[in-house]
Amino acid sequence: MTDRRNKILDRIRQLRNRTVDRGCTEAEAVEAAAKVAQLLADNDLTMDEVEIRATPFTCEDTALEADIGERIWLVAEAIAHLTDCRTWVSPTGADPVRIFFFGLAHESEIANYLLAICSRAMRDDLSRAAKQWALYRPNVRRRRRGAFLDGMADSLARRIRALKPPRPPGKGIVVLKDALVEAELERLGMRFRDQRGRMPNDLDDGFLDGRIAGDRVALDPGLRPPSRAAGLIGSDGP
Protein backbone atom coordinates (compact mmCIF):
# COMPACT_ATOMS: atom_id res chain seq x y z
CA MET A 1 0.00 0.00 0.00
CA THR A 2 1.34 3.45 -0.94
CA ASP A 3 2.32 6.14 1.56
CA ARG A 4 -0.46 8.33 0.14
CA ARG A 5 -3.09 5.66 0.87
CA ASN A 6 -1.69 5.18 4.36
CA LYS A 7 -2.00 8.89 5.00
CA ILE A 8 -5.59 8.89 3.76
CA LEU A 9 -6.49 5.97 6.04
CA ASP A 10 -4.83 7.69 9.01
CA ARG A 11 -6.73 10.89 8.21
CA ILE A 12 -10.03 9.02 8.11
CA ARG A 13 -9.34 7.39 11.48
CA GLN A 14 -8.46 10.77 12.98
CA LEU A 15 -11.65 12.34 11.66
CA ARG A 16 -13.75 9.49 13.01
CA ASN A 17 -12.42 10.30 16.48
CA ARG A 18 -13.87 13.81 16.27
CA THR A 19 -17.14 13.11 18.04
CA VAL A 20 -19.27 14.88 20.63
CA ASP A 21 -18.31 12.19 23.16
CA ARG A 22 -14.67 13.17 22.67
CA GLY A 23 -15.25 16.87 23.27
CA CYS A 24 -16.13 18.20 19.82
CA THR A 25 -19.14 20.37 19.21
CA GLU A 26 -22.01 18.92 17.25
CA ALA A 27 -21.09 21.11 14.29
CA GLU A 28 -17.48 19.90 14.37
CA ALA A 29 -18.58 16.28 14.56
CA VAL A 30 -20.92 16.70 11.59
CA GLU A 31 -18.17 18.41 9.59
CA ALA A 32 -15.74 15.57 10.39
CA ALA A 33 -18.28 12.95 9.34
CA ALA A 34 -18.83 14.77 6.05
CA LYS A 35 -15.08 14.82 5.40
CA VAL A 36 -14.88 11.08 6.14
CA ALA A 37 -17.66 10.40 3.64
CA GLN A 38 -15.91 12.53 1.02
CA LEU A 39 -12.54 10.84 1.55
CA LEU A 40 -14.13 7.40 1.27
CA ALA A 41 -15.89 8.34 -1.97
CA ASP A 42 -12.87 10.08 -3.52
CA ASN A 43 -10.53 7.16 -2.81
CA ASP A 44 -12.87 4.23 -3.46
CA LEU A 45 -12.68 3.06 0.16
CA THR A 46 -15.13 1.58 2.63
CA MET A 47 -15.16 1.81 6.41
CA ASP A 48 -14.68 -1.97 6.52
CA GLU A 49 -11.35 -1.54 4.77
CA VAL A 50 -10.33 1.30 7.06
CA GLU A 51 -11.12 -0.75 10.16
CA ILE A 52 -9.56 -3.97 8.94
CA ARG A 53 -6.29 -2.23 8.06
CA ALA A 54 -6.14 -0.80 11.59
CA THR A 55 -6.50 -4.22 13.25
CA PRO A 56 -3.24 -5.72 14.61
CA PHE A 57 -1.92 -9.16 13.70
CA THR A 58 -1.17 -11.79 16.35
CA CYS A 59 0.26 -15.29 16.47
CA GLU A 60 -1.44 -17.72 18.85
CA ASP A 61 -0.03 -21.16 19.62
CA THR A 62 -0.91 -24.28 21.61
CA ALA A 63 1.28 -27.14 22.83
CA LEU A 64 -0.22 -30.62 22.59
CA GLU A 65 0.94 -34.11 23.46
CA ALA A 66 2.33 -36.01 20.49
CA ASP A 67 -0.50 -38.47 19.79
CA ILE A 68 -3.11 -35.70 19.54
CA GLY A 69 -0.77 -33.07 18.12
CA GLU A 70 0.32 -35.29 15.24
CA ARG A 71 -3.29 -35.77 14.13
CA ILE A 72 -5.00 -32.49 14.95
CA TRP A 73 -3.26 -30.64 12.09
CA LEU A 74 -6.25 -31.62 9.95
CA VAL A 75 -8.54 -29.85 12.41
CA ALA A 76 -6.18 -26.86 12.58
CA GLU A 77 -6.31 -26.46 8.79
CA ALA A 78 -10.12 -26.49 8.89
CA ILE A 79 -10.11 -23.87 11.67
CA ALA A 80 -7.69 -21.70 9.71
CA HIS A 81 -10.02 -21.96 6.70
CA LEU A 82 -12.97 -20.93 8.86
CA THR A 83 -11.22 -17.95 10.49
CA ASP A 84 -9.13 -16.73 7.52
CA CYS A 85 -5.92 -17.36 9.47
CA ARG A 86 -2.71 -19.13 8.49
CA THR A 87 -1.65 -22.19 10.45
CA TRP A 88 1.48 -24.28 10.75
CA VAL A 89 2.84 -27.05 12.95
CA SER A 90 6.18 -27.46 14.71
CA PRO A 91 8.74 -29.67 12.88
CA THR A 92 8.19 -33.43 12.72
CA GLY A 93 9.36 -35.21 15.85
CA ALA A 94 8.84 -32.28 18.22
CA ASP A 95 7.24 -33.17 21.55
CA PRO A 96 5.09 -31.42 22.54
CA VAL A 97 3.69 -30.55 19.14
CA ARG A 98 2.92 -26.85 18.72
CA ILE A 99 0.08 -25.61 16.52
CA PHE A 100 0.28 -21.97 15.40
CA PHE A 101 -2.38 -19.58 14.06
CA PHE A 102 -1.46 -16.23 12.52
CA GLY A 103 -3.97 -13.59 11.50
CA LEU A 104 -5.96 -10.58 12.60
CA ALA A 105 -5.99 -10.40 16.39
CA HIS A 106 -9.57 -11.46 17.16
CA GLU A 107 -9.60 -14.19 14.51
CA SER A 108 -6.36 -15.88 15.57
CA GLU A 109 -7.61 -15.81 19.17
CA ILE A 110 -10.88 -17.44 18.15
CA ALA A 111 -8.95 -20.04 16.11
CA ASN A 112 -6.81 -20.97 19.10
CA TYR A 113 -9.88 -21.16 21.33
CA LEU A 114 -11.69 -23.46 18.91
CA LEU A 115 -8.60 -25.68 18.68
CA ALA A 116 -8.67 -25.97 22.49
CA ILE A 117 -12.32 -27.11 22.33
CA CYS A 118 -11.40 -29.80 19.80
CA SER A 119 -8.20 -31.00 21.49
CA ARG A 120 -9.96 -31.32 24.83
CA ALA A 121 -12.77 -33.31 23.21
CA MET A 122 -10.25 -35.61 21.51
CA ARG A 123 -8.40 -36.16 24.79
CA ASP A 124 -11.57 -36.84 26.82
CA ASP A 125 -13.20 -39.14 24.27
CA LEU A 126 -9.96 -41.07 23.76
CA SER A 127 -9.74 -41.65 27.51
CA ARG A 128 -13.27 -43.05 27.57
CA ALA A 129 -12.77 -45.21 24.48
CA ALA A 130 -9.42 -46.61 25.69
CA LYS A 131 -11.18 -48.38 28.57
CA GLN A 132 -12.66 -50.77 26.00
CA TRP A 133 -9.16 -51.75 24.82
CA ALA A 134 -7.59 -52.29 28.25
CA LEU A 135 -7.11 -56.04 27.71
CA TYR A 136 -5.77 -55.76 24.16
CA ARG A 137 -2.10 -56.29 23.35
CA PRO A 138 -0.01 -53.06 23.52
CA ASN A 139 0.47 -52.86 19.74
CA VAL A 140 -3.29 -53.26 19.18
CA ARG A 141 -4.04 -50.54 21.75
CA ARG A 142 -1.62 -48.17 20.02
CA ARG A 143 -3.22 -48.88 16.65
CA ARG A 144 -6.71 -48.35 18.04
CA ARG A 145 -5.69 -45.09 19.74
CA GLY A 146 -4.22 -43.69 16.55
CA ALA A 147 -7.17 -44.75 14.40
CA PHE A 148 -9.65 -43.33 16.90
CA LEU A 149 -7.90 -39.94 16.93
CA ASP A 150 -7.67 -39.97 13.12
CA GLY A 151 -11.42 -40.57 12.95
CA MET A 152 -12.17 -37.74 15.38
CA ALA A 153 -9.89 -35.34 13.50
CA ASP A 154 -11.55 -36.27 10.22
CA SER A 155 -15.04 -35.67 11.61
CA LEU A 156 -14.18 -32.39 13.36
CA ALA A 157 -12.37 -30.99 10.33
CA ARG A 158 -15.29 -31.82 8.05
CA ARG A 159 -17.81 -30.20 10.40
CA ILE A 160 -15.72 -27.06 10.94
CA ARG A 161 -15.25 -26.50 7.21
CA ALA A 162 -19.02 -26.78 6.77
CA LEU A 163 -19.51 -23.86 9.20
CA LYS A 164 -18.05 -21.32 6.78
CA PRO A 165 -20.59 -19.59 4.52
CA PRO A 166 -19.82 -19.32 0.80
CA ARG A 167 -17.53 -16.44 -0.12
CA PRO A 168 -19.13 -13.60 -2.06
CA PRO A 169 -17.71 -13.03 -5.55
CA GLY A 170 -15.33 -10.15 -6.22
CA LYS A 171 -12.89 -8.38 -3.94
CA GLY A 172 -14.75 -8.36 -0.65
CA ILE A 173 -13.42 -7.79 2.83
CA VAL A 174 -12.45 -11.47 3.20
CA VAL A 175 -10.23 -11.23 0.14
CA LEU A 176 -8.67 -8.10 1.60
CA LYS A 177 -7.99 -9.89 4.89
CA ASP A 178 -6.25 -12.72 3.03
CA ALA A 179 -4.05 -10.23 1.21
CA LEU A 180 -3.15 -8.40 4.43
CA VAL A 181 -2.20 -11.62 6.22
CA GLU A 182 -0.03 -12.74 3.30
CA ALA A 183 1.62 -9.32 3.12
CA GLU A 184 2.42 -9.36 6.83
CA LEU A 185 3.91 -12.86 6.63
CA GLU A 186 5.99 -11.67 3.69
CA ARG A 187 7.15 -8.65 5.67
CA LEU A 188 8.17 -10.92 8.57
CA GLY A 189 10.09 -13.17 6.18
CA MET A 190 8.08 -16.25 7.14
CA ARG A 191 8.08 -19.14 4.66
CA PHE A 192 6.43 -22.51 5.14
CA ARG A 193 6.75 -25.94 3.62
CA ASP A 194 4.16 -28.71 3.74
CA GLN A 195 5.75 -31.42 5.89
CA ARG A 196 2.76 -33.63 6.48
CA GLY A 197 3.86 -37.21 5.95
CA ARG A 198 1.54 -39.59 7.76
CA MET A 199 -1.78 -40.74 6.38
CA PRO A 200 -4.77 -41.44 8.66
CA ASN A 201 -5.42 -45.04 9.63
CA ASP A 202 -8.96 -45.36 8.33
CA LEU A 203 -8.96 -49.16 8.08
CA ASP A 204 -9.05 -49.94 11.80
CA ASP A 205 -12.43 -50.15 13.55
CA GLY A 206 -11.27 -47.37 15.87
CA PHE A 207 -11.48 -44.88 12.98
CA LEU A 208 -15.25 -45.23 12.70
CA ASP A 209 -15.59 -45.01 16.48
CA GLY A 210 -13.58 -41.78 16.37
CA ARG A 211 -15.74 -40.29 13.63
CA ILE A 212 -18.86 -41.06 15.66
CA ALA A 213 -17.29 -39.37 18.69
CA GLY A 214 -16.29 -36.36 16.58
CA ASP A 215 -19.84 -35.97 15.31
CA ARG A 216 -21.04 -35.61 18.91
CA VAL A 217 -18.72 -32.74 19.89
CA ALA A 218 -20.57 -29.47 20.52
CA LEU A 219 -18.69 -26.88 18.46
CA ASP A 220 -20.94 -23.87 19.13
CA PRO A 221 -19.10 -22.78 22.33
CA GLY A 222 -15.89 -22.60 20.32
CA LEU A 223 -17.08 -19.98 17.89
CA ARG A 224 -15.80 -17.20 20.12
CA PRO A 225 -14.18 -16.83 23.53
CA PRO A 226 -16.89 -15.96 26.08
CA SER A 227 -15.13 -12.72 27.07
CA ARG A 228 -15.05 -11.27 23.56
CA ALA A 229 -17.66 -9.62 21.41
CA ALA A 230 -15.90 -10.14 18.08
CA GLY A 231 -17.82 -10.54 14.84
CA LEU A 232 -19.02 -13.96 13.78
CA ILE A 233 -16.44 -16.14 12.12
CA GLY A 234 -16.55 -15.94 8.36
CA SER A 235 -18.81 -12.90 8.27
CA ASP A 236 -17.92 -9.59 6.73
CA GLY A 237 -19.58 -7.43 9.33
CA PRO A 238 -19.35 -6.78 13.10
Automatic annotation (TrEMBL):
Protein name: DUF2786 domain-containing protein
All copies of domain DUF7168, residue ranges: 73-192
Segments forming domain DUF2786: 7-47
InterPro entries xrefs: DUF2786 (IPR024498), DUF7168 (IPR055592)
Native source organism of the sequence: Methylobacterium hispanicum
Disordered as annotated region, ranges: 218-238
